[in-house]
Amino acid sequence: GVTRHYTFNIMYHNVTRLCHTRTILSVNGQFPGPRLVAREGDRVIVKVVNQVSNNVSIHWHGVRQLTSGWADGPAYITQCPIQTGQSYTYNFTITGQRGTLLWHAHISWLRSTIYGPIIILPKRNQSYPFQKPHKEIPIIFGEWFNVDPEAVIQQALQTGGGPNVSDAYTINGLPGPLYNCSSKDTYKLRVKPGKSYLLRLINAALNDELFFSIANHTVTVVEADAVYIKPFDTDQLLIAPGQTTNVLLRTKSYLPNATFFMEARPYFSGVGTIDNSTTAAILHYNNHSSSSSSSKLPVLRPTLPPINATGFVANFTSKFRSLNSVKYPANVPKTIDRKFFFTVGLGSNPCPKNTTCQGPNGTKFSASINNVSFVMPSTAILQAYFFGQNNGVYTTDFPVNPPLPFNYTGTPPNNTNVSNGTKTVILGFNTTVELVMQDTSILGAESHPLHLHGFNFFIVGQGFGNYDPNNDPKNFNFVDPAERNTAGVPAGGWIAIRFLADNPGVWFMHCHLDVHTSWGLRMAWIVLDGPQPNQKLPPPPSDLPKC
Ligand code: C2O
Asked: At 343, is the pLDDT very low, low, confident or very high (cuts 50, 70, 90)?
Protein backbone atom coordinates (compact mmCIF):
# COMPACT_ATOMS: atom_id res chain seq x y z
CA GLY A 1 0.00 0.00 0.00
CA VAL A 2 0.88 3.68 -0.18
CA THR A 3 0.71 6.40 2.47
CA ARG A 4 -2.00 9.01 2.18
CA HIS A 5 -1.71 12.32 4.00
CA TYR A 6 -4.60 14.50 5.06
CA THR A 7 -4.89 17.67 7.11
CA PHE A 8 -8.14 18.24 8.98
CA ASN A 9 -8.41 21.80 10.26
CA ILE A 10 -11.22 21.99 12.79
CA MET A 11 -12.63 25.43 12.06
CA TYR A 12 -15.74 27.57 12.26
CA HIS A 13 -18.00 27.69 9.24
CA ASN A 14 -21.28 29.49 8.63
CA VAL A 15 -24.06 27.31 7.30
CA THR A 16 -27.66 28.23 6.50
CA ARG A 17 -30.37 25.58 6.58
CA LEU A 18 -34.15 26.04 7.01
CA CYS A 19 -33.49 29.82 6.92
CA HIS A 20 -31.35 29.62 10.08
CA THR A 21 -27.69 30.55 9.86
CA ARG A 22 -25.45 28.99 12.41
CA THR A 23 -21.72 28.96 12.97
CA ILE A 24 -20.89 25.28 13.06
CA LEU A 25 -17.72 23.37 13.74
CA SER A 26 -16.39 21.87 10.52
CA VAL A 27 -13.40 20.18 8.99
CA ASN A 28 -11.69 22.50 6.51
CA GLY A 29 -14.85 24.62 6.19
CA GLN A 30 -16.72 21.75 4.54
CA PHE A 31 -20.08 20.37 5.60
CA PRO A 32 -20.37 17.41 5.47
CA GLY A 33 -16.65 16.98 5.85
CA PRO A 34 -14.12 15.84 3.22
CA ARG A 35 -13.95 12.32 1.90
CA LEU A 36 -11.11 10.22 3.17
CA VAL A 37 -10.15 7.83 0.37
CA ALA A 38 -7.69 4.95 0.64
CA ARG A 39 -7.13 1.47 -0.66
CA GLU A 40 -7.08 -1.63 1.46
CA GLY A 41 -3.52 -1.93 2.79
CA ASP A 42 -2.77 1.81 2.66
CA ARG A 43 -1.43 3.81 5.55
CA VAL A 44 -3.48 6.89 6.41
CA ILE A 45 -1.97 9.86 8.23
CA VAL A 46 -4.34 12.63 9.27
CA LYS A 47 -3.07 15.70 11.05
CA VAL A 48 -5.97 17.20 13.00
CA VAL A 49 -5.47 20.85 13.94
CA ASN A 50 -7.86 22.39 16.45
CA GLN A 51 -8.63 26.01 15.51
CA VAL A 52 -11.81 26.33 17.60
CA SER A 53 -12.45 26.87 21.28
CA ASN A 54 -14.00 23.40 21.89
CA ASN A 55 -11.88 20.36 22.69
CA VAL A 56 -12.07 17.85 19.83
CA SER A 57 -11.08 14.35 18.83
CA ILE A 58 -11.78 12.36 15.67
CA HIS A 59 -12.76 8.69 15.45
CA TRP A 60 -12.28 6.54 12.34
CA HIS A 61 -15.44 4.57 12.84
CA GLY A 62 -15.10 0.91 11.92
CA VAL A 63 -11.38 1.02 11.10
CA ARG A 64 -9.95 -1.98 12.93
CA GLN A 65 -6.86 -0.10 14.21
CA LEU A 66 -4.83 -3.29 14.63
CA THR A 67 -2.13 -2.41 17.20
CA SER A 68 -2.79 1.28 16.50
CA GLY A 69 -5.23 1.91 19.34
CA TRP A 70 -3.71 5.36 20.00
CA ALA A 71 -5.31 6.47 16.73
CA ASP A 72 -8.86 5.30 17.51
CA GLY A 73 -10.04 8.65 18.81
CA PRO A 74 -12.85 8.46 21.42
CA ALA A 75 -12.14 11.23 23.92
CA TYR A 76 -11.11 10.02 27.41
CA ILE A 77 -11.03 6.41 26.19
CA THR A 78 -7.98 6.26 23.88
CA GLN A 79 -6.80 9.86 24.09
CA CYS A 80 -7.28 13.14 25.84
CA PRO A 81 -9.03 15.60 23.53
CA ILE A 82 -7.06 17.92 21.28
CA GLN A 83 -7.17 21.33 22.93
CA THR A 84 -7.51 24.71 21.26
CA GLY A 85 -4.45 25.53 19.17
CA GLN A 86 -3.07 21.99 19.45
CA SER A 87 -2.83 19.21 16.91
CA TYR A 88 -2.62 15.43 16.90
CA THR A 89 -1.63 13.18 14.01
CA TYR A 90 -3.64 9.98 13.60
CA ASN A 91 -1.60 7.26 11.92
CA PHE A 92 -3.12 3.91 10.99
CA THR A 93 -3.19 1.22 8.32
CA ILE A 94 -6.34 -0.13 6.70
CA THR A 95 -6.01 -3.88 7.11
CA GLY A 96 -8.39 -6.49 5.71
CA GLN A 97 -11.21 -4.04 5.05
CA ARG A 98 -12.74 -2.57 1.92
CA GLY A 99 -15.99 -0.68 1.46
CA THR A 100 -17.48 2.32 3.24
CA LEU A 101 -16.98 3.58 6.79
CA LEU A 102 -17.21 7.04 8.33
CA TRP A 103 -15.12 9.38 10.41
CA HIS A 104 -16.65 11.65 13.03
CA ALA A 105 -15.86 13.74 16.06
CA HIS A 106 -15.97 11.64 19.22
CA ILE A 107 -16.55 14.01 22.10
CA SER A 108 -19.87 15.23 23.43
CA TRP A 109 -22.20 15.94 20.47
CA LEU A 110 -19.65 17.44 18.07
CA ARG A 111 -20.43 14.62 15.65
CA SER A 112 -23.56 16.62 14.74
CA THR A 113 -21.50 18.60 12.22
CA ILE A 114 -18.04 16.97 12.18
CA TYR A 115 -18.43 13.87 10.06
CA GLY A 116 -17.59 12.53 6.63
CA PRO A 117 -17.14 9.37 4.55
CA ILE A 118 -14.26 6.91 4.60
CA ILE A 119 -14.03 5.21 1.23
CA ILE A 120 -11.84 2.12 1.12
CA LEU A 121 -11.21 0.86 -2.38
CA PRO A 122 -10.04 -2.69 -3.02
CA LYS A 123 -6.32 -3.29 -3.51
CA ARG A 124 -5.05 -2.05 -6.82
CA ASN A 125 -5.50 -5.17 -8.94
CA GLN A 126 -8.57 -6.51 -7.18
CA SER A 127 -12.14 -6.11 -8.31
CA TYR A 128 -15.46 -6.02 -6.52
CA PRO A 129 -17.33 -9.32 -6.14
CA PHE A 130 -20.17 -7.61 -8.02
CA GLN A 131 -20.62 -5.74 -11.31
CA LYS A 132 -18.28 -2.77 -11.56
CA PRO A 133 -20.39 0.35 -11.07
CA HIS A 134 -20.48 3.21 -13.55
CA LYS A 135 -20.10 5.65 -10.64
CA GLU A 136 -19.76 5.62 -6.86
CA ILE A 137 -21.70 8.12 -4.79
CA PRO A 138 -21.53 8.69 -1.01
CA ILE A 139 -24.97 9.38 0.49
CA ILE A 140 -24.49 10.52 4.06
CA PHE A 141 -27.41 11.07 6.41
CA GLY A 142 -27.27 13.61 9.20
CA GLU A 143 -29.36 15.75 11.50
CA TRP A 144 -29.62 19.51 11.44
CA PHE A 145 -30.28 21.59 14.56
CA ASN A 146 -31.27 25.25 14.27
CA VAL A 147 -29.59 25.75 17.63
CA ASP A 148 -26.19 24.69 18.93
CA PRO A 149 -26.39 20.92 19.67
CA GLU A 150 -23.85 21.37 22.49
CA ALA A 151 -26.36 23.59 24.30
CA VAL A 152 -29.06 20.96 23.69
CA ILE A 153 -27.16 18.11 25.34
CA GLN A 154 -25.76 20.29 28.14
CA GLN A 155 -29.26 21.43 29.05
CA ALA A 156 -30.59 17.86 28.95
CA LEU A 157 -27.81 16.62 31.22
CA GLN A 158 -28.39 19.46 33.67
CA THR A 159 -32.16 19.17 33.88
CA GLY A 160 -32.20 15.39 33.63
CA GLY A 161 -34.81 15.53 30.88
CA GLY A 162 -34.78 14.38 27.27
CA PRO A 163 -32.94 16.68 24.84
CA ASN A 164 -34.72 18.81 22.28
CA VAL A 165 -34.94 17.02 18.98
CA SER A 166 -33.28 18.12 15.74
CA ASP A 167 -35.07 20.30 13.20
CA ALA A 168 -34.39 18.24 10.11
CA TYR A 169 -32.71 15.16 8.76
CA THR A 170 -30.26 15.71 5.95
CA ILE A 171 -28.88 13.92 2.92
CA ASN A 172 -25.33 15.03 2.12
CA GLY A 173 -25.89 17.95 4.48
CA LEU A 174 -29.14 19.11 2.83
CA PRO A 175 -32.65 18.75 4.32
CA GLY A 176 -34.44 18.78 0.96
CA PRO A 177 -37.75 20.05 -0.40
CA LEU A 178 -40.14 18.59 2.19
CA TYR A 179 -39.03 21.14 4.80
CA ASN A 180 -40.02 24.78 4.89
CA CYS A 181 -37.49 27.14 3.42
CA SER A 182 -35.39 24.32 2.09
CA SER A 183 -36.23 23.46 -1.52
CA LYS A 184 -33.01 24.96 -2.83
CA ASP A 185 -31.09 22.92 -0.27
CA THR A 186 -31.76 19.63 -1.99
CA TYR A 187 -29.19 17.06 -2.97
CA LYS A 188 -29.62 16.03 -6.59
CA LEU A 189 -28.12 12.88 -8.04
CA ARG A 190 -28.00 13.04 -11.82
CA VAL A 191 -27.96 9.64 -13.46
CA LYS A 192 -27.93 8.19 -16.94
CA PRO A 193 -30.36 5.44 -17.94
CA GLY A 194 -29.28 1.81 -17.99
CA LYS A 195 -26.24 2.16 -15.70
CA SER A 196 -25.24 0.83 -12.33
CA TYR A 197 -24.39 3.19 -9.45
CA LEU A 198 -22.81 2.20 -6.16
CA LEU A 199 -24.45 4.26 -3.43
CA ARG A 200 -22.36 4.35 -0.29
CA LEU A 201 -24.99 4.94 2.40
CA ILE A 202 -23.73 6.26 5.72
CA ASN A 203 -25.83 7.15 8.74
CA ALA A 204 -24.11 9.92 10.70
CA ALA A 205 -27.33 11.18 12.34
CA LEU A 206 -26.94 11.81 16.06
CA ASN A 207 -29.94 10.09 17.49
CA ASP A 208 -31.99 8.32 14.87
CA GLU A 209 -32.07 5.09 12.97
CA LEU A 210 -33.39 5.85 9.50
CA PHE A 211 -35.48 4.14 6.88
CA PHE A 212 -34.43 4.88 3.30
CA SER A 213 -36.08 4.24 -0.04
CA ILE A 214 -35.93 5.45 -3.65
CA ALA A 215 -39.21 5.80 -5.55
CA ASN A 216 -39.70 3.10 -8.22
CA HIS A 217 -36.26 1.57 -7.76
CA THR A 218 -35.11 -1.63 -6.14
CA VAL A 219 -31.50 -1.67 -4.97
CA THR A 220 -29.12 -4.56 -4.34
CA VAL A 221 -27.36 -4.52 -0.98
CA VAL A 222 -23.77 -5.71 -1.47
CA GLU A 223 -21.78 -4.57 1.53
CA ALA A 224 -22.24 -3.51 5.14
CA ASP A 225 -19.73 -1.89 7.53
CA ALA A 226 -16.93 -2.48 4.98
CA VAL A 227 -17.61 -6.22 4.64
CA TYR A 228 -19.02 -7.85 1.49
CA ILE A 229 -22.31 -9.63 2.01
CA LYS A 230 -24.45 -12.02 -0.02
CA PRO A 231 -26.29 -9.60 -2.30
CA PHE A 232 -30.02 -9.15 -1.79
CA ASP A 233 -32.62 -6.89 -3.35
CA THR A 234 -34.82 -4.52 -1.43
CA ASP A 235 -37.02 -1.44 -1.87
CA GLN A 236 -36.64 -0.22 1.69
CA LEU A 237 -33.64 -0.10 4.00
CA LEU A 238 -32.90 0.58 7.62
CA ILE A 239 -29.61 2.15 8.56
CA ALA A 240 -28.62 2.91 12.14
CA PRO A 241 -26.21 5.65 13.20
CA GLY A 242 -22.69 4.30 12.72
CA GLN A 243 -23.75 1.79 10.09
CA THR A 244 -22.69 1.95 6.47
CA THR A 245 -24.40 0.07 3.64
CA ASN A 246 -23.33 -0.14 0.02
CA VAL A 247 -26.11 -0.68 -2.49
CA LEU A 248 -26.16 -0.99 -6.27
CA LEU A 249 -28.75 1.14 -8.00
CA ARG A 250 -29.50 0.12 -11.57
CA THR A 251 -31.09 2.91 -13.52
CA LYS A 252 -33.88 2.13 -15.95
CA SER A 253 -34.55 3.47 -19.43
CA TYR A 254 -36.68 6.35 -18.25
CA LEU A 255 -37.55 9.48 -20.17
CA PRO A 256 -35.05 12.25 -19.76
CA ASN A 257 -35.80 14.52 -16.80
CA ALA A 258 -37.80 11.89 -14.96
CA THR A 259 -37.49 12.71 -11.27
CA PHE A 260 -37.72 10.36 -8.30
CA PHE A 261 -37.47 11.17 -4.62
CA MET A 262 -35.04 9.37 -2.35
CA GLU A 263 -36.31 9.74 1.20
CA ALA A 264 -35.24 8.98 4.74
CA ARG A 265 -37.15 9.26 7.99
CA PRO A 266 -36.74 7.69 11.43
CA TYR A 267 -37.45 4.29 12.83
CA PHE A 268 -38.38 4.77 16.46
CA SER A 269 -39.52 2.06 18.81
CA GLY A 270 -39.26 3.83 22.17
CA VAL A 271 -41.39 6.24 24.13
CA GLY A 272 -40.87 9.98 24.04
CA THR A 273 -40.46 12.70 21.47
CA ILE A 274 -38.53 12.49 18.27
CA ASP A 275 -38.26 14.48 15.09
CA ASN A 276 -40.58 12.54 12.78
CA SER A 277 -39.85 14.52 9.62
CA THR A 278 -38.64 13.34 6.23
CA THR A 279 -35.56 14.32 4.30
CA ALA A 280 -35.62 13.95 0.53
CA ALA A 281 -33.09 14.08 -2.27
CA ILE A 282 -33.71 13.87 -5.97
CA LEU A 283 -32.74 11.18 -8.43
CA HIS A 284 -32.77 12.87 -11.79
CA TYR A 285 -32.50 11.07 -15.15
CA ASN A 286 -30.52 12.98 -17.65
CA ASN A 287 -29.36 11.54 -20.94
CA HIS A 288 -27.73 14.46 -22.64
CA SER A 289 -29.19 13.79 -26.11
CA SER A 290 -32.65 15.22 -25.41
CA SER A 291 -32.37 18.09 -22.98
CA SER A 292 -35.09 19.80 -24.99
CA SER A 293 -37.84 17.70 -23.43
CA SER A 294 -40.23 20.29 -22.10
CA SER A 295 -43.05 18.16 -20.69
CA LYS A 296 -42.99 18.28 -16.91
CA LEU A 297 -42.98 14.79 -15.50
CA PRO A 298 -44.57 14.04 -12.15
CA VAL A 299 -42.32 13.59 -9.13
CA LEU A 300 -42.65 10.15 -7.60
CA ARG A 301 -42.24 9.52 -3.89
CA PRO A 302 -41.21 6.24 -2.25
CA THR A 303 -43.09 4.33 0.43
CA LEU A 304 -41.31 3.99 3.76
CA PRO A 305 -42.21 1.60 6.59
CA PRO A 306 -44.23 3.07 9.48
CA ILE A 307 -42.20 4.75 12.21
CA ASN A 308 -42.36 1.84 14.68
CA ALA A 309 -41.97 -1.02 12.17
CA THR A 310 -39.94 -3.26 14.48
CA GLY A 311 -41.08 -6.36 12.55
CA PHE A 312 -39.74 -4.93 9.28
CA VAL A 313 -36.46 -4.10 11.00
CA ALA A 314 -35.99 -7.65 12.36
CA ASN A 315 -36.78 -9.13 8.96
CA PHE A 316 -34.51 -6.68 7.13
CA THR A 317 -31.52 -7.19 9.43
CA SER A 318 -31.85 -10.98 9.17
CA LYS A 319 -31.18 -10.70 5.42
CA PHE A 320 -27.57 -9.63 6.00
CA ARG A 321 -25.27 -12.63 5.56
CA SER A 322 -21.52 -12.70 5.14
CA LEU A 323 -20.40 -13.46 1.62
CA ASN A 324 -18.34 -16.29 3.13
CA SER A 325 -16.53 -17.10 -0.11
CA VAL A 326 -13.08 -18.67 -0.43
CA LYS A 327 -11.62 -15.20 -0.86
CA TYR A 328 -13.76 -13.54 1.81
CA PRO A 329 -14.40 -16.19 4.46
CA ALA A 330 -16.49 -15.58 7.57
CA ASN A 331 -14.08 -16.41 10.39
CA VAL A 332 -16.70 -16.94 13.08
CA PRO A 333 -15.12 -17.99 16.41
CA LYS A 334 -16.26 -21.58 16.89
CA THR A 335 -15.12 -22.30 20.42
CA ILE A 336 -15.75 -19.64 23.05
CA ASP A 337 -13.44 -18.74 25.94
CA ARG A 338 -15.72 -16.24 27.65
CA LYS A 339 -19.48 -15.72 27.52
CA PHE A 340 -21.10 -12.50 28.64
CA PHE A 341 -24.69 -11.39 29.12
CA PHE A 342 -25.24 -7.62 29.10
CA THR A 343 -28.51 -5.81 29.58
CA VAL A 344 -28.83 -2.49 27.77
CA GLY A 345 -31.49 0.12 28.35
CA LEU A 346 -32.64 3.30 29.92
CA GLY A 347 -32.96 4.00 33.64
CA SER A 348 -32.61 6.94 35.95
CA ASN A 349 -30.47 8.65 38.53
CA PRO A 350 -32.02 10.28 41.60
CA CYS A 351 -32.51 14.02 41.42
CA PRO A 352 -29.99 15.88 43.61
CA LYS A 353 -31.50 17.38 46.78
CA ASN A 354 -33.23 20.75 46.48
CA THR A 355 -33.38 20.64 42.69
CA THR A 356 -36.11 19.66 40.29
CA CYS A 357 -35.39 17.22 37.53
CA GLN A 358 -37.27 16.71 34.29
CA GLY A 359 -36.67 12.98 33.82
CA PRO A 360 -39.09 10.14 34.56
CA ASN A 361 -40.97 10.76 37.87
CA GLY A 362 -38.79 13.75 38.65
CA THR A 363 -35.50 11.84 38.26
CA LYS A 364 -32.63 12.31 35.82
CA PHE A 365 -32.60 10.21 32.67
CA SER A 366 -29.78 7.74 32.56
CA ALA A 367 -28.81 4.68 30.53
CA SER A 368 -26.74 1.67 31.44
CA ILE A 369 -25.18 -1.66 30.60
CA ASN A 370 -25.78 -4.25 33.33
CA ASN A 371 -27.16 -1.38 35.36
CA VAL A 372 -23.85 0.50 35.31
CA SER A 373 -24.04 3.95 33.82
CA PHE A 374 -20.52 4.62 32.58
CA VAL A 375 -18.93 7.79 33.91
CA MET A 376 -16.35 9.40 31.62
CA PRO A 377 -12.99 9.73 33.39
CA SER A 378 -11.07 12.99 33.26
CA THR A 379 -8.02 11.39 31.66
CA ALA A 380 -7.74 8.78 28.91
CA ILE A 381 -8.17 5.14 29.97
CA LEU A 382 -5.70 3.83 27.38
CA GLN A 383 -2.96 6.11 28.69
CA ALA A 384 -3.71 5.18 32.30
CA TYR A 385 -3.68 1.50 31.37
CA PHE A 386 -0.49 1.67 29.33
CA PHE A 387 1.44 3.47 32.06
CA GLY A 388 -0.12 1.47 34.91
CA GLN A 389 -1.88 4.48 36.41
CA ASN A 390 -5.43 3.20 36.56
CA ASN A 391 -5.92 4.32 40.16
CA GLY A 392 -8.73 6.84 40.28
CA VAL A 393 -9.27 6.61 36.52
CA TYR A 394 -11.07 3.31 36.00
CA THR A 395 -11.76 -0.03 37.67
CA THR A 396 -11.79 -3.53 36.22
CA ASP A 397 -14.88 -4.79 38.03
CA PHE A 398 -17.54 -4.32 35.39
CA PRO A 399 -20.36 -6.70 36.45
CA VAL A 400 -20.05 -9.24 33.63
CA ASN A 401 -23.41 -10.79 34.38
CA PRO A 402 -26.45 -8.87 35.60
CA PRO A 403 -27.10 -8.88 39.34
CA LEU A 404 -30.38 -10.81 39.38
CA PRO A 405 -32.48 -13.03 37.19
CA PHE A 406 -35.12 -10.70 35.86
CA ASN A 407 -37.90 -10.51 33.32
CA TYR A 408 -36.22 -7.91 31.12
CA THR A 409 -39.18 -7.38 28.86
CA GLY A 410 -41.90 -7.55 31.50
CA THR A 411 -43.54 -4.93 33.70
CA PRO A 412 -41.12 -2.13 34.56
CA PRO A 413 -39.83 -2.24 38.15
CA ASN A 414 -40.58 0.55 40.63
CA ASN A 415 -36.92 1.30 41.13
CA THR A 416 -35.33 2.40 37.88
CA ASN A 417 -32.09 3.63 39.47
CA VAL A 418 -28.74 2.76 37.95
CA SER A 419 -25.31 2.66 39.56
CA ASN A 420 -22.49 4.84 38.24
CA GLY A 421 -18.86 4.01 37.60
CA THR A 422 -15.98 3.80 35.15
CA LYS A 423 -15.83 0.02 34.97
CA THR A 424 -14.04 -2.08 32.37
CA VAL A 425 -13.62 -5.75 31.46
CA ILE A 426 -10.15 -7.20 30.86
CA LEU A 427 -9.74 -9.78 28.10
CA GLY A 428 -6.64 -11.83 27.45
CA PHE A 429 -5.15 -11.58 23.97
CA ASN A 430 -6.98 -13.79 21.44
CA THR A 431 -9.86 -14.54 23.79
CA THR A 432 -12.92 -15.65 21.87
CA VAL A 433 -15.95 -13.80 23.18
CA GLU A 434 -19.65 -14.43 22.95
CA LEU A 435 -21.76 -11.53 24.10
CA VAL A 436 -25.54 -11.55 24.38
CA MET A 437 -27.07 -8.11 24.70
CA GLN A 438 -30.60 -7.91 26.01
CA ASP A 439 -32.77 -4.81 25.69
CA THR A 440 -34.63 -3.95 28.89
CA SER A 441 -38.07 -2.38 29.02
CA ILE A 442 -37.30 -0.60 32.29
CA LEU A 443 -38.19 2.76 30.74
CA GLY A 444 -39.76 1.35 27.60
CA ALA A 445 -38.34 -1.15 25.12
CA GLU A 446 -36.19 0.52 22.52
CA SER A 447 -33.77 -0.46 19.78
CA HIS A 448 -30.13 0.33 20.62
CA PRO A 449 -27.53 0.32 17.82
CA LEU A 450 -24.48 -0.93 19.73
CA HIS A 451 -21.05 -0.10 18.30
CA LEU A 452 -17.85 -1.89 19.25
CA HIS A 453 -14.57 -0.11 18.54
CA GLY A 454 -11.53 -2.02 17.29
CA PHE A 455 -13.32 -5.14 16.07
CA ASN A 456 -15.86 -6.54 13.71
CA PHE A 457 -18.24 -9.00 15.30
CA PHE A 458 -20.49 -11.70 13.92
CA ILE A 459 -24.21 -11.54 14.69
CA VAL A 460 -24.85 -15.21 15.40
CA GLY A 461 -28.38 -14.79 16.71
CA GLN A 462 -31.16 -12.36 17.47
CA GLY A 463 -34.69 -12.63 18.82
CA PHE A 464 -37.54 -11.03 20.70
CA GLY A 465 -38.42 -11.42 24.38
CA ASN A 466 -35.99 -12.66 27.00
CA TYR A 467 -32.89 -14.50 25.81
CA ASP A 468 -33.11 -18.19 26.66
CA PRO A 469 -29.57 -19.54 27.23
CA ASN A 470 -30.79 -23.14 26.98
CA ASN A 471 -32.65 -22.99 23.70
CA ASP A 472 -31.73 -19.90 21.69
CA PRO A 473 -28.12 -20.99 20.99
CA LYS A 474 -29.46 -24.02 19.14
CA ASN A 475 -30.47 -21.67 16.32
CA PHE A 476 -27.24 -19.69 16.13
CA ASN A 477 -25.72 -19.21 12.69
CA PHE A 478 -22.00 -19.99 12.64
CA VAL A 479 -21.78 -20.35 8.85
CA ASP A 480 -22.52 -16.97 7.27
CA PRO A 481 -23.64 -14.53 9.97
CA ALA A 482 -23.38 -10.82 9.20
CA GLU A 483 -20.05 -9.27 10.21
CA ARG A 484 -20.43 -5.69 11.42
CA ASN A 485 -19.17 -3.06 13.82
CA THR A 486 -22.62 -1.66 14.73
CA ALA A 487 -25.78 -3.68 15.24
CA GLY A 488 -29.18 -2.97 16.70
CA VAL A 489 -30.21 -4.72 19.89
CA PRO A 490 -33.87 -5.17 18.93
CA ALA A 491 -36.56 -3.32 20.90
CA GLY A 492 -37.77 -5.82 23.48
CA GLY A 493 -35.30 -8.43 22.27
CA TRP A 494 -31.70 -9.57 22.22
CA ILE A 495 -28.74 -10.05 19.94
CA ALA A 496 -25.84 -12.52 20.27
CA ILE A 497 -22.45 -11.58 18.83
CA ARG A 498 -19.04 -13.24 18.69
CA PHE A 499 -15.62 -11.74 18.21
CA LEU A 500 -11.96 -12.57 18.60
CA ALA A 501 -10.10 -10.21 20.94
CA ASP A 502 -7.00 -10.03 18.73
CA ASN A 503 -6.39 -6.30 19.09
CA PRO A 504 -4.55 -5.02 22.17
CA GLY A 505 -5.81 -1.74 23.60
CA VAL A 506 -8.85 -0.13 25.18
CA TRP A 507 -11.99 -0.43 23.12
CA PHE A 508 -15.11 1.57 23.67
CA MET A 509 -18.54 -0.03 23.23
CA HIS A 510 -21.65 2.12 23.26
CA CYS A 511 -25.06 2.83 21.87
CA HIS A 512 -24.57 4.95 18.75
CA LEU A 513 -27.61 7.08 19.58
CA ASP A 514 -25.62 9.93 21.10
CA VAL A 515 -28.22 10.79 23.70
CA HIS A 516 -27.99 7.25 25.08
CA THR A 517 -24.18 7.42 25.05
CA SER A 518 -24.35 10.72 26.92
CA TRP A 519 -26.65 9.09 29.49
CA GLY A 520 -24.09 6.34 30.10
CA LEU A 521 -24.96 3.46 27.75
CA ARG A 522 -21.27 2.73 27.21
CA MET A 523 -18.38 0.71 28.61
CA ALA A 524 -14.84 -0.27 27.65
CA TRP A 525 -12.98 -3.52 27.06
CA ILE A 526 -9.28 -3.76 27.79
CA VAL A 527 -7.49 -6.30 25.60
CA LEU A 528 -4.05 -7.31 26.85
CA ASP A 529 -0.94 -7.62 24.69
CA GLY A 530 -0.14 -10.92 23.01
CA PRO A 531 3.26 -12.65 23.24
CA GLN A 532 4.59 -11.69 19.79
CA PRO A 533 6.02 -8.23 19.06
CA ASN A 534 3.29 -7.57 16.46
CA GLN A 535 0.64 -8.43 19.08
CA LYS A 536 1.61 -5.62 21.42
CA LEU A 537 0.39 -2.07 21.63
CA PRO A 538 3.38 0.17 20.89
CA PRO A 539 4.08 3.25 23.03
CA PRO A 540 1.99 6.35 22.24
CA PRO A 541 3.04 8.86 19.60
CA SER A 542 4.91 11.84 21.04
CA ASP A 543 2.14 14.31 20.16
CA LEU A 544 -0.58 12.38 22.05
CA PRO A 545 -2.72 15.11 23.66
CA LYS A 546 -2.56 15.66 27.41
CA CYS A 547 -5.61 16.27 29.56
CU1 C2O B 1 -19.01 6.00 15.57
CU2 C2O B 1 -17.68 5.34 19.33
O3 C2O B 1 -18.36 5.73 17.45
From this structure: very high
Taking the centre of ligand 1 as the mean of its atom positions, its distance from the CA of residue 377, in whole angstroms, is 17
Same domain, 79 and 173: no
More confident residue, 297 or 505: 505
- Say yes or no: CB of residue 242 within 6 Å of ligand 1: yes
pLDDT in tens, 236-248: 999 999 999 999 9
pLDDT at res. 245: 98
- Which residue from 266, 264, 300 is spatially nearest to 280, judged by alpha carbons? 264
Which atom of ligand 1 is least distant from the CA of 453? 2
Q: What spacing in Å lies between the alpha carbon of 61 and ligand 1's midpoint? A: 6
pLDDT of residue 256: 78
Ligand 1, residue 62: give the atom nearest the CA: 1
Indicate whether residue 59 lines ligand 1 (CB < 6 A): yes
Range of the domain at 191: 128-320
Is residue 543, in this structure, part of any structural domain at all?
A: no
- Going by CA atoms, what residue is nearest to atom 3 of ligand 1? 61
- Which residue among 289, 320, 351 closes a domain? 320
Query: Is 542 among the domain residues?
Result: no
Predicted local confidence at residue 297, as pLDDT: 65
- pLDDT of 434 > 60? The answer is yes
Contact 48, 96 (CB under 8 A): no
CA of 242 to the centre of ligand 1 (A): 7
Cα(216) to centroid(ligand 1), Å: 33
Q: E strands of 94-144, at which residues?
A: 99-105, 115-121, 135-144
CA–CA separation, 65 and 365 (whole Å): 33
What is the signed CA dihedral for 342, 346, 349, 355, rounded to 10 degrees?
Answer: 170
Q: Is the CB of 484 under 6 A from ligand 1?
A: no
pLDDT value of residue 87 = 98
Q: Which atom of ligand 1 is nearest to the CA of 74?
A: 2
One-character DSSP codes across 446-511: --EEEEETT--EEEEEEEESS--TTTGGGG---SSB-EESEEEEPTTEEEEEEEEE-S-EEEEEEE
Ligand 1 centroid – CA 452 distance (Å): 8
Residue 117 Cβ inside 6 Å of ligand 1? The answer reads: no
Ligand 1 center from residue 510 Cα (angstroms): 8
Q: What is the reported pLDDT for 292?
A: 47
Inter-residue contact 485 to 500 (CB < 8 Å) = no
Predicted local confidence at residue 492, as pLDDT: 94
Longest dimension (CA), the chain: 73
pLDDT tens digits along 251-297: 998 777 889 999 999 999 988 888 999 999 999 998 655 544 445 66
Q: Which of the residue ranges 13-17, 54-58, 86-90, 256-260 would you say has the lowest mean pLDDT?
A: 256-260
Q: What is the CATH number of the domain that holds 31?
A: 2.60.40.420
Question: 106 CB under 6 A from ligand 1?
Answer: yes
Domain check: are 428 and 476 in the same one?
Answer: yes
Domain count of the fold of the chain: 3
| pLDDT beyond 60 at 399 | yes
Kindly state whether residues 100 and 188 are assigned to the same domain: no
Q: Is residue 540 part of a domain?
A: no
